[in-house]
Amino acid sequence: MYLTYLDSNSWLIEIGEQRVLLDPWLVDSLTFGNLDWLFKGSRTSQRQIPENIDLILLSQGLEDHAHPPTLKQLNRNIQVVASPNAAKVVQQLGYTKITTLTHGQSFILNNSVEIKATPGSPIGPTLVENGYLLKELATGLTLYYEPHGYHSPSLKDAAPVDVIITPLVDLALPLVGPIIRGRKNALEIAKLLQPQVMLPTAAGGDVMFEGLLTKFLRQEGSVEEFRSLLEKNNLAVQVIEPLSGERFELQLKKRALAT
């Protein structure tokens, strides 16, 4: 399994000889509702669009997961798997192969990778977006992704999971509390899923943020603090901080396949 961190929530996952582009923001700036004054993300340098993508995987319909300028740059004939909210975005952009997954539903990519939607981040009072479990069918190796740190208790049925990509620190607003939930939630999912490797997402990479909202956002915790939490709880988990844009191989022990 190979991973390339493309900043913010964006990843290229190479699993089962398939190339999965996850929640890509690769070009232009990032805003919500074109409100630059409130929040704007900018890249220090533009990302090259990865080639030979087999699947675009979208966990949410918000711009930091389904980024319209990036999606406009990609081939509209690439297969897309998306949450219902994200599926609306790519439908409007003219994508031709869209599979919408609700919680508990699965999609098989080229007879090589199973992708299962799990309950993820709440957006507003009624909408819950997707997390994903990706399983390499030939080996049983599994990766779990949830970008805001909201983990469903139903994930216990998937344990053990080899790789977890999720926030390891909190991003909090005064009076509101954490809007990105790492720390405690990351520790709890580590206990539940017993991964070999964990990687941080959502709060890193070669990006800069500005706007009114950023004046109040506070990061609480650190990756080193999280490593210490794992040690104190006797969890033998490797925590990897990926370098932005660099492809690397995960050295994973294969688990016995269920019969």
Question: What is the secondary structure topology, with strand pairs?
Answer:
Layout: E1 2-5, E2 11-15, E3 18-22, E4 40-43, E5 55-58, H1 68-73, E6 79-82, H2 84-92, E7 98-100, E8 106-109, E9 113-123, E10 127-136, E11 142-145, E12 163-165, E13 170-173, E14 177-180, H3 183-193, E15 197-199, E16 207-210, E17 218-220, H4 223-232, E18 238-239, E19 247-249
Parallel strand pairs: 3-5, 5-6, 6-7, 11-12, 12-15, 15-18
Antiparallel strand pairs: 1-2, 1-19, 2-3, 4-16, 8-9, 9-10, 10-11, 13-14, 13-17
Helix pairs in contact: 3-4
Pfam families: Lactamase_B_3 (PF13483)
Organism: Chlorogloeopsis fritschii PCC 6912
Protein name: Zn-dependent hydrolase
Structural overview:
The chain is of the alpha/beta class. It has a single domain, classed as Ribonuclease Z/Hydroxyacylglutathione hydrolase-like (Metallo-beta-lactamase, Chain A). Helices cover 14% and strands 32% of the residues. The protein has 4 helices and 19 strands. It has helices spanning 68-73, 84-92, 183-193, 223-232, and strands at residues 2-5, 11-15, 18-22, 40-43, 55-58, 79-82, 98-100, 106-109, 113-123, 127-136, 142-145, 163-165, 170-173, 177-180, 197-199, 207-210, 218-220, 238-239, 247-249. It has a 7-stranded mixed beta sheet with strand order 7-6-5-3-2-1-19, with helices on one face. Strand 13 (170-173) and strand 14 form a beta hairpin. The chain is globular and about 45 Å long. It comes from Chlorogloeopsis fritschii PCC 6912. InterPro entries: RibonucZ/Hydroxyglut_hydro.
